[in-house]
Amino acid sequence: MSVLSLANCLETYLAVGAFLFGIGVYGMVQRQTFIGMLISAELILCGASVNFMAFNRFLAPNPAVGQIFTLFIMAIAAAEAAIALSIIIAVYRNYKSIDAEDAADLNG
Amino acid sequence: MTPSILSAEGLSGILFLVFLAVTASGAVIAVGAKRLIRSVTGLALCFLGVAGLYYYLGSPFLALMQLLIYVGAVCVTIVFAIMLAGSEESAASPRKQILRIAGLPAAAVLIWGLSALGSGTPWVKMPQTGDFSLESVGKALLTTFGMNFELISLVLLVAIVGSLVLARSGRSKS
Question: Which of A52, B86, B96, B156 is most buried (most C-beta within 10 Å)?
């Protein structure tokens, strides 16, 4: 198995999906602003889609299903980004900051 | 069997490595950059690399959709939000500093565990019943997955109305 034929093996894509997911989780933990967290959430969703597409290409009986699933993930991610960004704008109007630690009015 | 670098397989293998590098570096920039606008640029780079991977996974249609929806719509929307809400990050609180340092090994263990699970499992290939064509995707979308299709369009409609309402409230009339 040479480096140049990596494109034809399932494990490569699974590793890419795991990398995107793990780095997204790290960003989610480490970011301070809401927008940074949203960017990390998009990375996590992207890792999930890569996994779906990899299994679809190599193992699934009907290759149309995985593509449709990835399309649905894209639609959900777009809706999620729109809602999250409008919430962020609303938070910014109220608190004059998009820092996650500042929006703590209900903190006891 | 090792394909020669100058053969068609070798060149496509090199291109695949380039896409892998673009994806990984984009993800690292998206998470590690100090300024949010650079982070969004890294996200767009990462999506570009993933679109290339989709091409190698036998679905040029999804590669184009990835570029159109993620790079063209989601990233641009995030840029608008950064423009409206300001991008300055305040100084990190002590709790966040601890998370920043402790999160790195945790994420490394997560990545290692998931990829070890992926490469250690003996996957079983099912017999093929369909094909990769866009035609079969369209047919399945309108027959088997018709209900899901309608629900997704409803979700998108609710998301549009909801984000308009949320972003509008608090604006003064003047």
Answer: A52
Determine the Cα–Cα distance for residues A34 and B12; give it in Å rounded to an integer: 39
pTM of the model: 0.90
CB contact under 8 A, A57 and B57: yes
On whether any CB of chain A is under 8 Å from the CB of B120, the answer is: no
The string of pLDDT tens digits covering residues A83-102 is: 999 998 888 888 888 888 77
How far is the CA of B139 from the CAs of B45, B77, B131, B167, in angstroms?
A: 32, 31, 12, 38
Decide: A55 and A66 in contact? Cβ < 8 Å.
yes
ipTM greater than cut 0.95: no
Report the CATH fold assignment for A3-95: Helix Hairpins (1.10.287)
pLDDT reading at B174 higher than 60: no
Average pLDDT, stretch A26-41? 91
